[in-house]
Amino acid sequence: MHSMTGYGRAQASAEGVAVVVEIQAVNKRQAEVILNLPDSLTAWESEIRSIVDRAISRGRITVNLNLEFTSPEVEPISPRTVERIWLARRSLTSSWMAPSI
Questions:
Q1: Residues 72 and 57: beta-carbon distance below 8 Å
Q2: CA–CA distance, 56 with 84 (Å, rounded to integer)
Q3: Tens digits of per-residue pLDDT, 14-57?
Q4: Which helix (H) or strand (E) holds 9?
Q5: For residue 89, is pLDDT > 50?
């Protein structure tokens, strides 16, 4: 049996947006995903939850996701900002996604 307890942290940035993701996992028979997202990403909650759900079969997984707009010309609601966040997320996916926990 593999340990269900762990912690990981990844960060990436793309064109004025910095993303930091921290994931904590503890043993639990059922799968449970707890997301802590900034208000600007609540619309993406179901997609983020789906990504995590596909990677786990059991355990309590807590995901803390933080955004920082590092460029003054970045507008948090603009379509370009959404694209920048998406690119950063794709970069992080390969860093922190394990095939299965």
A1: no
A2: 27
A3: 878 888 999 999 998 888 999 999 887 888 888 888 888 888 88
A4: strand 6-14
A5: yes
The domain segmentation of the chain, as residue ranges, is 6-96
| Architecture per CATH, 6-96 | 2-Layer Sandwich (3.30)
DSSP string across 45-78: HHHHHHHHHHH-SSEEEEEEEEEEE-STT--TTS
DSSP character string of 85-99: HHHHHHHHHHHH--S
**Measuring CA to CA, how many Å separate 3 from each of 17, 51, 90?**
34, 21, 27
Starting at the earlier edge strand, list the strands of the sheet with 17-26.
6-14, 17-26, 59-69, 31-36
Structure tokens given for 56: 């786990």
Question: Model pTM?
Answer: 0.66
User: In whole angstroms, what is the distance from residue 93 CA to residue 101 CA?
Assistant: 15
